[in-house]
Amino acid sequence: QPATRGTSMMHLSLLTLPRTAPRWRFLEPYQLHQLIWKGFPGIERIEGSRPFLYRHNEEAAEHSILVLSAVKPDWSGLEDEAEGSTTQHRTIDPQGLPEGARLRFFVRANPVVERKGYADNASRRIIVGGNLKRVADKMGVTVDALENREERLTAWIERKGGDGGFAIERDELGRPLLMIAPNHDYRIRRSRDKSATPMTFTGVDFEGILRITDPAAFAATLQRGIGRGKAFGFGLLSVAKVG
Length: 243
Fold this sequence. Notes:
- This protein has helices spanning 29-37, 132-139, 149-164, 215-224, and strands spanning 10-18, 52-58, 62-69, 86-92, 102-109, 112-115, 124-127, 166-168, 178-180, 184-188, 199-212, 237-241.
- By secondary structure, it is of the alpha+beta class.
- The chain is globular, with a radius of gyration of 19 Å.
C-alpha cells in the first residue's frame, strides 16, 4: 500500500498510452506493473508492498492509467518509449477535506469477504454479489434466505465506509446515492510467462456520493485504498467535489 514518507500530500498521475502505437496495442498486467514502477526509481521492490495504487481503463483508442501515490513520481523515463504517450500530474491534500464534506466518488473494488456457515464448517473468501445460487448451495440455505446482489454490495461498501471515515449519502426516501455496475471478471497473469495459468479477479465499479464522517480516517482510506486486489488495479478511491 502507498507509504506515507514524511508528507501528507498525495500525488495523482494520469498516463495515456495510444493503442495506435504497436507497443501499446495490448498491455499485459506484467508490462503495466513494470511501466508504473519506472515512475518510482530508487524505491526497493518488496513483495506485497508498493508505493502506489492504480486503475487501468482500456478504451478502444487508448489505455488510461490512474496512479495514486504518497511518493512523487518521475515519469521522465517514459519519454524514451513514449510513442505518443502523455502524462499528467497533480498533488492533492487528503488532510484538507473537512468533516461533513460531500464528494462524488468512484472505486473499482474486488469485494471479497470471509464467509462462514458452509455445510463443511469451513470458512472461505467469496465475492460479494456473486452467484447467489452457488453461495446458497454451499451454505445449505435457499436463495430467498440471502439478500439480493445490490443489497449485499451496498452493505459491503457501507461497512468499508464505517471503518474508512465516510458514509454513503442517501436521498429523501432513504435510498443510497449509489450506482453499482455489473460484475466483471479480469483474467490476470502475475508474470510475463504466457504459459502460466491466469488468475481471475472479480471487479465491481461503485459510483455515488459520500459524506466524510472522520477526516483522518478518510485521508488514510485514500492512501491505502479499499478492499483486496490492490496489486491488480483494484481499490483506488477517486473523489471530486459535488456540483
